What does this fold into?
Amino acid sequence: MSHLKISKGLKRQLASLTGPIFIETLLIMTLGAVDTVMLSRHSDASVAAVGVVNQIVMLCFLVFEVINLGTSVLVSQYLGARLNDRLEKVVAVSLIVNLVIGLAISALLYFGATTILRLMGLNDLLLGEGLGYMRIVGAFAFFQALSLTASAALRASNRAIYPMVVVGIVNILNIAGNYILIFGRFGAPALGVEGAAISTATSRAIAMVILNIILFHTVIRRFPLEIFRRFPTRELTNLLKIGVPSAGEQFSYSYAQIVMTFFINMLGLEVLAARTYVVNIVMFGYLFCIAISQGGAITIGHLVGKGKIRGAFILGKYVMRLALIITVAQSLTIAAGGHWILSLLTDNPEIITIGATLLWLDVLVEIGRPVNIFATNALRATGDVNYPFYVGLIVMWTLQVAGGYLTGIYFGLGIYALWLMIASDEITRGIIFTRRWWSMKWAGKSFVTD
It folds into this structure.
């Protein structure tokens, strides 16, 4: 099958989703990078501490994805099958469940901040930098829970433009807030790391309000109050069927990154800071891959809802190939300019040298990563939600975590060996997922006929 057999209408639909998702993801990444760049003017210790805290916070945010991943799949399939009543119910259930979960996560991050950061191995210097940031950002985590739910529903309903615009507004507010509160401009106190946290939390609160207003004016015109009289357990069950293994795969990946960060922390502050800079830089290399994979998954979900399985297969091949080519090209470009990019962020020559080498090694990572990002999104959209979880759990923890510890820590080969094991994991999973898509064993797992 050739990608030339994809209809122009399908390509237009893919482009209409990919474009806004690309810009939205770019803005979200910029939001994180802005904190890193501005805090780098404060101290390298601030960058390292906030990098660790953000990994913990993002790991907790994955709990929200249990519901949001299911929301995205069900909304896209129900929209394709024109099951509007079920669509409204699943969005309402998602908002209620994630609000409850969000409040629980907020309490955990606020009251457990010291214990969690101690378990991550942060010394007193880094703990002092990270504690205030984690408590402020963590206390308002429920804002992000409701924002992510609204964004998932809007994108899956072919309204990706709205989350993009909201993130753009929030980005501007966050940059302004960082400038004022980190450095103490316009009469405000210079709060450093805590200033960045206040700006981030405030921006997320504003995003939550705007996104949910848009959601109730577009996707669901009214909140279906009848769900409180007869709770739609079928929709909650489907959300969990999709969300638990899907979020489990993402949780496994993120937790593996936290364990790897724990290993890297053993290698010293310079290595940890270099890793934080590199992770923020390379995200821009696979940005297009994230966007087209999410846009492709939504479109594939619509096709599956309509029963057009062959069309979903052909579209998937097209998206996978495009994501791989562009991601590798972008990672090579970033690696070529790595020394210059890092010198803009820090004047520590050791951090620059380590980071520049890691950027070249990361090119190997980007051979596998785009295939994995596509496949996990696409297989989930078809209803094949368990396979990516099992593959990720076995391969990732065997090669990246266990292999990384043995080579990098036990045998003392350091950060470069750790990075090569990350590459071996990504490439191996990429090969396995490619075979899965070609096998078409994901067909027949749709949720619209359950």
Q: What stands out?
A: The mean pLDDT is 87. The chain is about 85% helix and 0% strand. The two ends are 30 Å apart (CA to CA).
